[in-house]
Amino acid sequence: MHQYRMYWAFTRKAFLRSAVYRFDVWSRLGSNLIFLLMWGSIWTALYAGREEAGGVSFEAMLTYIVVSQFLSGINGAGTPLWEIQEKVRTGDIAIELMRPFNVPLRYLFADFGSVAFYIITALLPLYIVLFIFMDLTVPASWLTWVYFIAAAFNGFLIRYCIEMAFGLLSFFLVETGGIEDIFYFAMSLLSGSVIPLWFFPDWLEKIAVYLPFQGIYYIPNAIFIGEIFGGEILFSIGIQLFWVIACFFLLRFVWNRASHKVIVQGG
Amino acid sequence: MPILKYVDLYFKLVSAGIRAQFQYRFAFFMRIIGLITAYSGTAITMWVMLYRFQELGSWSFFEMLFLFAIAILSWGFCIILFFHFRSLDTYIINGTFDRFLVRPINPFFHFMAMRFDVASFGQFIFSILIFIWVSFEINIGWTFGKVLFLFASIIGGILIQGGLLVLISALAFWTTKSEQFYWVAMYPARNLTNYPLVIYPKIVQWFTAFVVPFGFVNYFPAAVILEKETPFFPAYIGYFSPLVGLVFFMIAYWIWMLGLSRYKSTGS
């Protein structure tokens, strides 16, 4: 219990720290909006005036993109990966290793703080306005909202664990260039962040459902617009939980190996 | 001839930079592979997107690839010449910018020749492969005139995007911030132009034609070469791309020099 109080302190500090760098918050919101404009326009043009495509109405598809952009705002609000990689490269990470906390958990809790600040001051006001002025679908039952929030939270955890585990590879490889680009591409496409899985070619969809990425955007988005409904919701959240646990252990494994490596090198 | 002297000096300065980068050959190849995979990723996303829908605002997959490749090719040159302009703020804050002022050459030129990023070979390889592939897949009807026009519009695209980088860097003279403006404004805006502008709201199209002339980088020229319609704009508008680039770059250069004249060292 005492331990968690310590981690919450990081959350609180990160929240306050974000409040100081308000320019960052606003600028991030600006670029989030431009990408929303881009994907909104792309899907409007793809539907080209049709009421529905592949059994999904235009309104639902547009909602999917808006929700996805909202979630990607959340997922991008934490400590950027390059900042941690830079600490590895300069050896500053050694100081963190000496302190009595688990470093990946410490960054996760700090992210909760900066994400909370970003949601409250920037994302939520903007997206509430968007939902008022655009023709979008909103879940009718409060239970769907609960499922959506749970799924979005799970998605955040999956993304955090995978991204961090991946970022820690820089402990082993000096240059992660090419692999990193493949990783980010896979994450953006296979998570369904910009194209929902049901529009994929069948073979690609089959691959995507067996990967953890779909839990980040596709599952919460699809729950929100009602494409995943009924008993399927709990099943999908179950899949997410499986991936949260699996990715968490992956992160722990990579972290243990990586910190060991630092000790060997002497930082 | 001062211009010849500057050209000679430019090659001397950059060849030193190139030799330095080739010392890290593994890093160099990894970065090129990284760039090519990142761009291929965008191309694959386009393919998946059009798998069920066939076309986006009357543009087919291969036409979109062509549009994308023009943007990447001019961006590759832009990275070589101007990409480091975005981090002028770091130089000003650290006080290292002053060394560009104490030498007997134009500071703009000196700053420009300071870096030469060889990883932009990634952009060249990617875009040239795409040009070849697309030429086999769709009938572009290449003529000598079209090839010439492609080159001219690439130069236009370099000048427009370079001008924008110069403008962003000039902001550092007034606000001591520039890098951030790149990531907030220009990076997402460049992403917008990977897709045909016709899909965006009219005001955005108008903005990218006449305010920040991104439309002249790839959309208007590609429409001319592929003989596609550009709704709301006359079909010949693409031919103005080199001229627009030249004018835009001159304005950007002028603003940069204006900023320079009121620059005061931070003294640190």
UniProtKB/TrEMBL annotation, chain A:
Highest taxon of the lineage: Bacteria
Spans traversing the lipid bilayer: 29-49, 105-133, 145-162, 182-201, 207-226, 233-255
One Pfam entry name: ABC2_membrane_6
Organism: Cytobacillus citreus
Organism classification: Bacteria, Bacillati, Bacillota, Bacilli, Bacillales
Name this polypeptide is given: ABC-2 family transporter protein
Keyword list, A-Z: Membrane, Transmembrane, Transmembrane helix
Automatic annotation (TrEMBL), chain B:
Superkingdom of this protein's organism: Bacteria
InterPro entries cross-referenced by the UniProt entry: ABC-2_transporter-like
TM region(s), chain numbering: 28-49, 61-83, 118-136, 148-174, 195-216, 236-256
Keywords: Membrane, Transmembrane, Transmembrane helix
Record-linked Pfam families: ABC2_membrane_6
Protein name: ABC-2 family transporter protein
Naturally occurring in which organism (per UniProt): Cytobacillus citreus
